[in-house]
Amino acid sequence: MDQTHSRAMEALQPFVHLANSNSATSPKFVANLITNATSSPNTYVFAELLETPTVQALRSKDTPAEYQGYLTLLEIFAWGTWKDYQTTPNLPPLNNEQTLKLRLLSLLSLSATIKPLTYQILMDALSIAAPSELESLVTSAIYSSLITARLSPATNPPTINVTSVAPLRDVKPQSLKTMISILTQWETRCGDVINDIEAEIAKIKTDSAKRRAKEQARSVLIEKTLSNWGSDGGESNPRFPGSKKQVWHGGVKGGSSGFVGNKREFSGDDFDDGYWDNGADEAYDSQFSTTKMDIDQGAGSSVTGSAGAGARHAKRVLGRKS
Question: How does pLDDT run across 24-41, given as a tens digit for each residue?
Fold first, then answer.
């Protein structure tokens, strides 16, 4: 609780005790009690005094007419303004202390509801004729810790810049439904904001987990690749991954002349090149004859050995296997 509000509550307690005492039996006593409570320099809240049975008894039809207006006057001090006092008939007159108190309380309400707060607005609302009188009232409110403000008489128009207002006005019972509705809407908006924030947090966590899993999978793949690379002891053939590189010979040795023939030859046992080999006896399936081609292996090939120039050459049949 604000210290200013606490001091105001403490200042009201003596009047509450008197209202609840056995001596508070006559309307005149209660009327004097209200006058003293509203004239005290440190009392700014009056709801607790309003709730006492002796004060509420002033609403009775049996109350003399001269005292009936004191209950309404106390209600104006609790949550009303100077304008309310001016426009409400049959109210008791105010002394100087009450006039100052009601203007200070009205200043609190106006400071919380009107922006910008100009000199002219306050002078009209508080029935003040001179700017100097208004400045004296505002200065008194500042030193009493009722408001935090700065006077700006040199601006056009002259204004009062209020930055904070003490919580020293009671809540009007008729405004409770409106306040509850406003607070309910505010609670709903806060709940929606919290739900949106929680959903965003959950999304961020999910995305983060996916990124971590992806990075971990990538790291495992890289480590596995490097491990396989390091464990491969042989030289791989780029055309046949995982196989050993085949050794190719540029020719075959025949006779005394060294390498003969102008065709490259390799051993048929090295690997299957996808073609049919007719062999020395030219035995092959005739159904593939239209798609095969004979290749002269040349003199001194590895098939005929060194049989001489008159020897029959072995032929290879070119043609893709189906």
Answer: 889 999 999 999 999 998
